[in-house]
C-alpha cells in the first residue's frame, strides 16, 4: 500500500506535510467516531483541528467531538467606531494566525449536527449568548479536565509543538499541562485494544522549552509540519489607578523567600508590577502602600507579608505563566530555585550554599501573553531557560502525588486569583452568572484556594475590583447574595480590593460581613450592611468607623497622585503592543463606552461633545489614526466630536 500524499517516511514515526493526509490516516486508525483533545488556549494544533473539522463537515458519517478549553479567536470590534481603532491593530497583531474554523462557525450558530465542542473554560465573557457553548460547557477543575476528557472517550490528542534547534527532540512548550498525563493515558488505552493517536503539529515560531516539556520523537504517533505561523497574542490590558491601588496592597502580602502564583488580567498585571516596584523602587512602593492602608491591612502585612525588597527571592509555581511572571524571572525576583527530589530540596532549605545544581525558579502549566513575551521566550539565555519548567498541571495545582516535596517547595505560598464578585459570607463568584450562564470557568482557582488552606503557611488571596460599570451605572462587586459560587465560604481567606485588605480566614460571619463592608466602595456600604443586618449577621445599630467611609475613586486618585506623577503607576506597566496613539485612544473609547451605555447617556454625551465642533490641535493626530480628521458626513462628524471629548476627558498632563 502506498503512503498517503504528503507523507514523509522518517526515522521512527510518521511525518506529514499535509494535514488532510494525516487526518485520513488517523480516522482510518481510530474509526469514524473521533474525540479530539486540543490543549487549552495557545497550544492547539490549529491546522489539524481545522482539517478534522472540515472532514466532519464534508462527511456526516464522521462523528467529531472536540474537547478543549479557551478556543482563542481574533477579537472583533463591537461597533463601527471601535472598528476604526481595533481593525488595524488586529490586522497587525494577528496576521498569519490560522483561525479555528469550529470556533468561527460556533459564533455564527453554524456547527453541523455531527460536531460537538465541549470546553471546560470559555474565553471570558464572549459566549454568554451562545447557546451551543453554554449547553456544552463542562464544569471541571483544571486538574480534573484530563480525566473528564478520557471519560468522554478521548482517542486523539493534537498539540502544537516546537522543534529543538539543532537537536532531535520536540517540546510541548506552552502546554504540557494536560498532555503529559493524557498521552500516557492514551497509550494505556491503546494497549487495552482501543486505537488512539497522539499527534504533534510543528510550529517553528513556538519557543523550545526543555525539562519536563521536552519529549522524544516517539511521544507522538505522527507529526504534521505546519511551518511557521503566528502565535496568538493576548495584548496586555490597561491598568488604571484603582487596579494599581489593589496591586500595591496585594504585593505587600508576599513574604520574601516565599512562593507565588498569579492569574491573568489587569489585576494580575498590577500585582506583578507592584512586586517589581517593591523590589526595585522600594521608597515609592512604601509611599503608595502607606497612603492606602485601610481595614486590617497594616496588621496583616506585618504578620504574613512585608514591604522590603526581596533578598531571598521568590519561587513561582503558577498554572499560567503570564508576561508578569516572566518579567519577575527576568528581573531576578523569581530566583529561589527548587529541586525535584526531596532530600536535595531539604538540604537546600537547611543550607542553601550546599547545593550546587541550579534549581527551578518557575514551574508553569501553560503560557499565554503578548507577542513580545513569545519573542523573549524564544531568545532566553540558556541559563534563564533552565530556570523554567513547564510541566503537568496536576503537579502545580495540587499537593497529591508528591505532597512531601511540594510542601517543602511551596513554603509561604501566596496564591493570587481574580473574582467577579464576593458575597457576604466571603465566597468567591468567579466563573458564572446567577442565572447559570458561564462567563469563563473554574480553572485552578478552587485548587489554589484549597491548597492554601492545606499548606501550613499558605494563603489564598482573591483580587476583586470593588465596583464594575453595567448599563452605564456603577455597581458593587461585594454583594450579599448572587452568582454561582466558585470558591465556597468555608475556604474564605483574604480578599483585596482597591480600598483595602480583608482577612476572612477563621472569622465569624459577623466579622466577615464587617470586614468586607470596610473594603466596599462607600456608595454601596449602606446597602450591603442593611442586607447583613436583615439576615441577622450584624446588629441593627452597627455603624462603620469614619475611617472606612471615604472609599471613593476620588480618594484613591488623591492618595496615589504623587506616585503616579513620579511615573511609578503607568497605564501599561508591563509594556504593550499598542502605539502611543492607540493606547490613548483605547482609554478614550473605554471612557466613551461607559458614558453612552443608554440612549439617555448617549444623548447627554453628544450634547457635551458639541463644544468640540472644531477639535483642538492636540487631538488631530488621534483623529487621523481613527480616520476622522476629515469627517465624510454628519455621522462621522458626531463620531469626531465624541472621540475628541473622550480624549480630552482622559487626558493627563
What's the layout of helices and strands?
Blueprint (H helix, E strand, L loop, with lengths): L6 E2 L5 E3 L2 H12 L2 E5 L8 H13 L4 E6 L11 H15 L6 H7 L7 E5 L11 H5 L6 H10 L4 E8 L6 E2 L7 H13 L5 E6 L11 E2 L6 E4 L15 H11 L7 E4 L3 H15 L1 H11 L4 H8 L10 E7 L1 H8 L11 H9 L11 E6 L3 H8 L3 H4 L2 E3 L2 H4 L6 H7 L3 E6 L2 E3 L4 E2 L15 H10 L4 E5 L3 E4 L2 E4 L1 E2 L14 E4 L2 E4 L5 H10 L6 H10 L18 H7 L1 H5 L14 H15 L4 H11 L10 H6 L8 H16 L4
Parallel strand pairs: 2-10, 3-4, 3-6, 4-5, 6-8, 8-10, 11-12, 11-15, 12-13, 13-14, 15-18, 16-21, 18-22
Antiparallel strand pairs: 1-2, 6-7, 7-9, 16-17, 19-20, 22-23
Helix pairs in contact: 1-2, 8-9, 9-10, 9-12, 13-17, 19-20, 23-26, 24-26
Describe the structure.
- By secondary structure, the chain is of the alpha/beta class.
- The protein has 3 domains: 7-225, Glutaconate Coenzyme A-transferase (3-Layer(aba) Sandwich), CATH 3.40.1080.10; 241-557, Glutaconate Coenzyme A-transferase (3-Layer(aba) Sandwich), CATH 3.40.1080.20; 580-649, no CATH class.
- The protein is built from 26 helices and 23 strands.
- Strands 1, 2, 3, 4, 5, 6, 7, 8, 9 and 10 form a 10-stranded mixed β-sheet that branches. Strands 14-13-12-11-15-18-22-23 form an 8-stranded mixed β-sheet, with helices on both faces. Strands 17-16-21 form a 3-stranded mixed β-sheet, with no helix packed on it.
- β19 (467-470) and β20 form a beta hairpin.
- α13 packs parallel to α17 and α19 (509-518) runs antiparallel to α20 (525-534).
- InterPro entries: AcetylCoA_hyd_C (IPR026888), AcetylCoA_hyd_C_sf (IPR038460), ActCoA_hydro (IPR046433), NagB/RpiA_transferase-like (IPR037171).
- This is Acetyl-CoA hydrolase.
- Keywords: Hydrolase.
Amino acid at each position: 500500500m502506498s503512503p498517503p500524499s504528503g507523507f514523509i517516511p522518517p526515522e521512527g514515526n510518521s511525518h506529514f506535510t499535509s494535514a488532510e493526509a494525516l487526518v485520513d490516516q488517523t480516522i482510518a486508525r481510530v474509526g469514524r467516531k473521533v474525540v479530539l483533545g486540543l490543549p487549552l488556549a495557545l497550544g492547539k494544533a490549529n491546522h489539524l483541528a481545522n482539517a478534522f473539522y472540515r472532514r466532519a463537515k464534508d462527511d456526516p458519517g464522521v462523528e467529531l467531538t472536540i474537547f478543549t478549553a479557551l478556543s482563542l479567536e481574533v477579537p472583533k470590534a463591537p461597533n463601527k467606531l471601535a472598528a476604526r481603532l481595533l481593525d488595524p491593530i488586529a490586522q497587525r497583531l494577528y496576521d498569519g494566525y490560522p483561525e479555528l474554523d469550529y470556533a468561527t462557525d460556533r459564533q455564527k450558530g453554524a456547527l453541523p449536527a455531527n460536531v460537538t465542542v465541549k470546553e471546560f473554560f470559555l474565553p471570558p465573557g464572549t459566549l454568554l449568548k451562545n447557546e451551543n457553548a453554554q449547553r456544552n460547557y463542562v464544569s471541571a477543575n483544571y486538574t480534573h479536565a484530563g480525566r473528564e476528557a478520557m471519560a468522554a472517550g478521548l482517542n486523539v490528542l493534537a498539540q502544537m509543538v516546537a522543534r529543538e534547534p539543532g537537536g532531535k527532540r520536540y517540546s510541548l512548550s506552552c502546554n504540557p499541562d494536560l498532555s503529559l498525563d493524557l498521552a500516557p493515558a492514551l497509550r494505556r488505552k491503546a494497549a487495552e485494544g482501543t486505537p488512539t493517536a497522539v499527534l504533534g503539529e510543528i510550529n517553528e515560531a513556538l519557543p523550545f522549552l526543555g525539562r519536563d516539556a521536552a519529549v522524544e520523537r516517539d511521544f507522538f504517533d505522527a507529526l504534521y509540519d505546519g511551518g511557521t505561523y503566528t502565535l496568538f497574542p493576548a495584548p496586555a490590558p490597561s491598568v488604571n489607578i484603582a487596579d494599581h491601588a489593589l496591586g500595591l496592597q496585594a504585593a505587600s502580602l508576599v513574604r520574601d523567600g516565599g512562593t507565588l502564583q498569579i492569574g491573568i488580567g489587569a489585576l494580575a498585571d498590577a500585582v506583578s508590577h507592584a512586586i517589581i516596584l517593591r523590589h526595585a523602587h522600594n521608597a515609592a512602593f512604601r509611599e503608595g502602600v502607606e497612603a492606602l492602608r485601610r481595614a486590617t491591612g497594616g496588621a496583616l502585612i506585618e504578620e504574613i507579608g512585608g514591604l522590603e525588597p526581596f533578598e531571598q527571592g521568590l519561587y513561582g509555581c503558577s498554572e499560567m505563566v503570564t508576561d508578569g511572571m516572566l518579567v519577575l524571572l527576568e528581573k531576578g525576583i523569581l530566583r529561589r530555585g527548587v529541586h525535584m527530589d526531596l532530600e536535595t530540596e531539604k538540604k537546600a532549605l537547611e543550607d542553601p550554599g550546599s547545593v550546587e545544581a541550579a534549581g527551578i525558579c518557575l514551574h508553569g502549566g501553560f503560557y499565554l501573553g503578548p507577542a513580545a513575551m513569545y519573542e523573549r521566550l524564544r531568545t532566553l539565555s540558556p541559563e534563564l531557560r533552565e530556570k523554567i519548567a513547564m510541566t503537568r498541571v496536576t503537579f502545580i495545582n495540587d499537593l497529591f502525588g508528591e505532597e512531601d516535596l511540594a510542601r517543602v517547595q511551596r513554603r509561604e505560598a501566596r496564591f493570587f486569583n481574580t473574582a467577579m464578585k464576593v458575597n457576604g459570607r466571603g465566597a468567591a463568584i468567579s466563573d458564572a452568572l446567577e442565572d447559570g450562564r458561564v462567563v469563563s470557568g473554574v480553572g485552578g482557582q478552587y485548587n489554589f484556594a484549597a491548597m492554601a488552606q492545606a499548606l501550613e503557611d499558605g494563603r489564598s488571596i482573591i483580587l476583586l475590583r470593588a465596583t464594575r460599570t453595567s448599563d452605564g451605572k456603577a455597581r458593587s462587586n461585594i454583594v450579599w447574595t448572587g452568582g454561582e459560587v466558585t470558591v465556597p465560604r468555608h475556604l474564605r481567606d483574604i480578599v483585596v480590593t482597591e480600598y483595602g485588605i480583608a482577612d476572612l480566614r477563621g472569622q465569624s460571619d459577623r466579622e466577615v460581613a464587617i470586614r468586607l463592608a470596610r473594603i466596599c466602595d462607600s456608595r454601596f456600604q449602606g446597602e450591603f450592611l442593611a442586607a447583613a443586618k436583615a439576615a441577622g449577621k450584624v446588629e441593627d445599630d452597627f455603624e462603620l468607623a469614619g475611617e472606612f467611609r471615604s472609599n471613593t475613586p476620588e480618594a484613591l486618585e488623591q492618595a496615589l497622585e504623587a506616585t503616579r506623577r513620579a511615573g511609578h503607576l503607568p497605564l501599561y506597566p508591563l509594556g504593550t503592543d499598542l502605539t502611543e496613539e492607540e493606547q490613548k485612544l483605547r482609554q478614550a473609547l473605554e471612557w466613551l463606552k461607559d458614558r453612552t451605555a443608554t440612549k439617555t447617556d448617549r444623548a447627554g454625551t453628544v450634547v457635551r461633545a458639541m463644544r468640540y465642533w472644531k477639535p483642538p490641535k492636540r487631538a488631530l493626530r488621534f483623529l487621523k489614526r481613527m480616520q476622522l480628521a476629515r469627517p465624510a458626513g454628519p455621522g462621522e462628524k458626531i463620531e469626531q466630536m465624541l472621540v475628541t471629548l473622550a480624549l480630552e476627558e482622559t487626558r493627563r498632563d
